[in-house]
Design brief:
Layout (H helix, E strand, L loop, with lengths): L13 H28 L13 H37 L14 H6 L7 H7 L2
Length: 127
């Protein structure tokens, strides 16, 4: 017996997608600004930095550099997630899990609009 039922394709209303896209664009701009500002905090990027520091100054510079580097990496991960969400909105794939392709629960998307995985797959990823 043939299944004559057509598969329903779900899409978010344009008004919802527009607000999520606006959020993501604003977030991207904010993240890019923060990443750029970090360069001013990194002692290794200071052109006036002395190569003849005391051991204490060397340690402080190293610690400050590592702190800035860790923050930068986290911001870059967030920027990548934001760009992926914008791409998914553009391609009509927003709201679908990247692993299992099922629809991500709307309550999850309300809390984190840029979620890439359904809760089930997210839990598997974190094990």
């Amino acid at each position: 017996m043939k299944n004559n039922m057509k598969k329903t394709i779900f899409t978010f209303p344009l008004t919802v997608l527009k607000s999520i896209q606006d959020f993501a664009l604003s977030r991207r701009q904010d993240l890019q600004k923060k990443i750029k500002e970090l360069d001013h905090e990194d002692p290794f990027k200071d052109s006036d930095r002395s190569i003849f520091n005391s051991p204490d100054d060397d340690i402080k510079e190293q610690v400050d550099h590592e702190r800035v580097d860790a923050i930068r990496k986290e911001l870059e991960v967030n920027l990548e997630e934001t760009n992926k969400a914008l791409e998914k909105i553009k391609n009509g794939k927003y709201g679908f899990c990247e692993k299992c392709n099922s629809l991500i629960d709307t309550a999850r998307l309300e809390v984190f609009p840029l979620a890439r995985f359904c809760l089930k797959c997210e839990k598997k990823n974190n094990k």
